[in-house]
Design a protein that fits this description.
The chain has 363 residues and is α+β, with helices and mostly antiparallel strands. It folds into two domains: 230 residues, Rossmann fold (3-Layer(aba) Sandwich), CATH 3.40.50.300; 122 residues, no CATH class. The chain contains ten helices and 21 strands. The strands form five sheets. The protein has a six-stranded mixed β-sheet with strand order 6-7-8-3-9-10, with helices on both faces. A six-stranded antiparallel β-sheet has the order 13-12-11-14-20-21. β7, α5 and β8 form a beta-alpha-beta unit. α2 packs parallel to α4 and α3 crosses α4.
Length: 363
Amino acid sequence: MAEIELKNLSVEFGAFKAVDDVSLTVKDGEFVVYLGPSGCGKTTTLRCIAGLVKATSGDVLFDGRRVNELSPSERNIAMVFQFVSLYPHLTIRENIAFPLKARGTPRAEIARKLEWVTGVFKLGDELNRYPAALPPGARQKVALARAVIRNPAVLLLDEPLSAIDEQFREEMRWELGHLQRQLGVTTIYVTHDQREAMSLADRIVLMNNSRIVQVGDPDSIFLQPVDIFAGQFIGSPSMNLIDLVPVDGGLRLADSGVTLTAQRHSLPDWALKSRRKLKLGIRPLNVHLVEDETGAGSDIAVDDVFSVGRERFFTFRIGDTIHQGVDKRGKRAAGEGRVHFDPDGLLFFDAETGRRVVAEERP
């Protein structure tokens, strides 16, 4: 296995900078997920690590050794792409063994490794079938088995589940995480799907506009976003974002008549005294409906209440913007109840820079 280090990595295509000064260390055996919207630079970074794209500047190091000039085959990496590319005229057994045969590996060694990898991926019953006879999830498992059979130092996965039907994707996601822990191979995974990132990663590398926005474990990325982009890209439904207006005794929500008070919502003193323009970020799970008589909620009209599976959500409007919360009261009609903001879920962002503001950064 290998530790991977990126030092000030940049990739330019003409005037376009696809990767802009990216630095990161991936530990030996770690599962790191690059997450971000389309075109943010995550796949280009992955291809640079693989040796498929040449860096304009900066370095890629494997175990401290600079590999910029090495070909993909010299880097001992394995890569699995979004669309599976198996040889249709070869059986599953022959597809998996192909990399070893191409290397001239002795037959006995091929048989030993084939037995091991098909046991790990539970492919024994499919070995004599052809790719066309397998469902998409099984074909992706074959591609993964073919990738790891030669013991690569690094496994690179470029959106490997996005072309699989949803019914197979959940199962494959679980299996992939289990297999990576079992194999212990250093793995870098690229996706735009936050559910994949949150469920698989030891650490998430969140990218936007060709740069790294935030690096951290899934919980810290979710609970402590560094800016508005991180807060809204992670989480479904997305984080509510509301302008704040300083008033006597609290902070008013945009142009509504609703004010968060220092006493009821435990507002930090620095936020009340701030000279910055602030935005409130609060996730829907921290906004809920309470009964009118509790006195804990705010007078905000509820537009709609709806269910998604076992969860019930509601929408409410501040100005022209629609926001969401979670209704935990059971079945109620739209318009009933009052909206309560959980004080523990309040996040504050600088309205101009978009950066999250915390107590240690008192203006």
